[in-house]
Amino acid sequence: MSPWLVVGLGNPGPRYAGNRHNVGQMVLDVVADRAGASFTRHKGRAQVLDGRLGTLAGGAPGPRVILAKPESYMNLSGGPVAALATFYGIEPERLLVIHDELDFPAETLRLKRGGGEGGHNGLRAISQSLGTRDYGRLRVGIGRPPGRMDPAEYVLRDFSAAERAGLDVTLQQAADVVEDVVTLGLDEARQRLHAA
């Protein structure tokens, strides 16, 4: 069976690293820390970690997974994701994209396959490049902007100190979901998450 490609969306460089828009990449950093491995540059314009997640019955290493953080800006994520999918021979049903979600309260996680992009430019770019919307999404709630703040400005702001405490727990929970998807499959992982 082909590996999973798990993509954490965000914008490149240290300037954006703590932004709400980069929460997908923050999740992958937690997964990488747990695996005791690090990302390396890939010719597909992404930072990539090719490894295994979890353990199988009898203690054997878990399934192979490709973790990827595109080095493009969010609205250009499609090119790197499509290039990696082609390079590793991964079909859309083995793709999981982790992204920020304005329409969910902070610390909320939702897992689904397919559907619309909800105005998310990163998802729109991926759907266009792949020619399908039928891939997995792990949505990490960041809440709505306060008052009349422009959502585009809000997602490019760092999490506040007060938000960081809850965020650390959410990132660990999201990393658990990633591991469940890779070891159990998306449908079972979704049932486990949404039953909690």
From TrEMBL:
Entry keyword RNA-binding: yes
Site (Discriminates between blocked and unblocked aminoacyl-tRNA) location in chain: 11
Domain of life: Bacteria
CDD domains: PTH
Localization: Cytoplasm
Swiss-Prot/TrEMBL site (Stabilizes the basic form of H active site to accept a proton) positions: 100
UniProt GO molecular function: peptidyl-tRNA hydrolase activity
InterPro entries membership: Pept_tRNA_hydro, Pept_tRNA_hydro_CS, Pept_tRNA_hydro_sf
Gene3D superfamilies reported in the protein's UniProt record: Peptidyl-tRNA hydrolase
Residues reported to bind tRNA: 16, 73, 75, 121
The protein's name: Peptidyl-tRNA hydrolase
Species of the source: Georgenia alba
